Prior knowledge:
This protein has 6 helices and 32 strands.
Amino acid sequence: MLKVSGKQVAAVFGIVLLIIALIKVISIAEMSPPVISFERDVKSLGLKPLEVTVSDKGTGLSKVRISLLDAYGESVLVEKEYEKGTKSDVISVRINPEKLGIKSGAAELLIEATDRFMNGLLPGKKAVFSQRVTLDFIPPEIQELSPALYIRHGGAGVVIYKVSEDTVSSGVEIKDLFFEGYTGYFEDPSVYLAFFAYPYNAEKGEKIEILAADAAGNEARESVYYRLLRASYVKDEIGLSEWFLKSKVLPLFTKVYGYSPVGDDGKPDLRKAFLKINSETRKENDNRIYEIGRQSGEEILWKGKFNQLRNSKVGATFADHRKYLLDGNVIDNQYHLGYDLSVTKKYPVPASNTGVVVFAEHLGIYGNTVIVDHGMGVMSLYSHLSSMDVSVGDSVGKKDIVGRTGTTGLAVGDHLHFGVYVQGVPVRPLEWWDAKWINDNILYKVNYVKKNFGVVENPR
């Protein structure tokens, strides 16, 4: 009788467990089909390319096939085979209706992705995506309604336009910035207003276009004729004192980052602290303001001109170009994106116009900051406050106090840093303080459109 030792039994049992484990690993890695995903909704397809991501975590992709099926047959858009080891691919699917001989209408989008099951020894696992789609190759229509545009470098402007019913998003594009258009000011929902900025740091002669897109991603553009008015900006040099670096920069650095920078000698690295605060923190703060500015209400809340802080003396102005010197050497360059206004210490600061508070907290170099949304992308900013007397969600009028002037952030003397932003982009506050500018550049255009195109304002 054959005797089996305990060691032999254990060895066999171990081999069985190993085989089971291998089978499980293979089943997980190779039994799962590839994954198909998209960067946007695919219910409507047009001339804008569609990005399709295909991936397989197991043995990788083998092939992908993308096609459209309509009443006239099948149109193959993509056919690809992959080298061994390819785990993922992003495919830009572009539909050329003229080349393919297809027209707008109903169709089916079919995507098939196959993996290398058992390294090609067996037929691959296939993922199939199929969906009914609407093909639309006709871009929206745009009609500019407002008269010729005069805009100052660094200033703001407004364009009034009409778009076709298939439009799902529209606005004004300049440089690499998009300013959303708002409907609702007029009874006709197809008529939009878009407030926008000609950025202070943009080159002269930038193209300004009205952009409209439909659900299929088709885009239409119409150039806006404009005349750019000159603007002069101050150039300044600021020497950095040891007092400023130790009493303002270091405490702010510690507040923002939670530690104090130290040099090789074990002493506070004043230069490093300043550069990080004045450059990186400033950029982060401005990005935060930009993001807040993109979340504006859809109704104009402001009335008439904006008010400058009463009895205030103007210090620094908008877009001042500052060179910062340490030991006589330029170590940084930045722009001052607002007006510095001073009266007396802890002077009460009223809102410059009617609006809703959308931000009220400490903001890096700006210190205690309140931001008021005036609707349709227009916001005002109040910084360096010693106290904030409002909360997010509060409605404010021109006489309502939002806080008191102070020295928080990087402010040296007690003052208010006041800024105006259009969809998060800083613009010249001086324009918004001027009743004539508002009349000539905004109200005149509204009345022109009403008179020449029979457009009626919504009752308020």
